[in-house]
Amino acid sequence: MESAAAIRVLVIDENPTSAGNLATFLSAHHYDVATCSALDGARDVVSSRRPHVLVLATKDHPHAEVEEVRKVYPRLPLVLLTAEAGQELLLDVEAFAPAVPASPSRGFGHIESAVEAAAHFS
């Protein structure tokens, strides 16, 4: 696995403030971070930046968004940030491995740990 300095991360979040805050935190911890606001915009960034890990922040319909990511990027490790919890969502995320769930309420350190774990899949 490459060092953390070389890990490229794409944060997909419709909220630019949240995406910017997470990108700032991860960049300060030596990740190479890009952001976009939607899955559609991610295609160009994935092609040009070739991230090691996708971080998908979702509020609505996390199941559908995870399925969409897996259709388009089946081999890219995914960190799913969602406030939704429950066994069904965890099973969905595990079915689309490599994927790691993370809860935004647990803080940026928790998210960074999930990114690091997901990067080991790439």
Description:
InterPro entries: CheY-like_superfamily (IPR011006), Sig_transdc_resp-reg_receiver (IPR001789). One of its GO terms (biological process) is phosphorelay signal transduction system. It is a single chain. By secondary structure, the protein is of the alpha/beta class. The protein has a single domain, classed as Response regulator (Rossmann fold, 3-Layer(aba) Sandwich), CATH 3.40.50.2300. The chain is 46% helix and 20% strand. The protein contains 5 helices and 5 strands. It has helices spanning 16-28, 39-49, 62-72, 87-95, 108-119; strands spanning 8-12, 32-36, 53-58, 78-82, 99-102. It has a 5-stranded parallel beta sheet with strand order 2-1-3-4-5, sandwiched between helices. Helix 4 links the parallel strand 4 and strand 5. The radius of gyration is 13 Å and the shape is globular. The model has no long low-confidence stretch (mean pLDDT 80).
What features would you highlight for this structure?
122 residues, alpha/beta, Rossmann fold, five-stranded parallel β-sheet, 5 helices, 5 strands, globular, Response regulator, Sig_transdc_resp-reg_receiver, CheY-like_superfamily
Strand-pairing-aware structural class:
alpha/beta
CATH class: Alpha Beta
The rounded distance between the terminal residues' Cα atoms is 8 Å
Question: Mind telling me the C-alpha Rg?
Answer: 13 Å
Largest beta sheet, briefly? 5 strands, parallel
Adjacency order of strands in the biggest sheet: 2-1-3-4-5
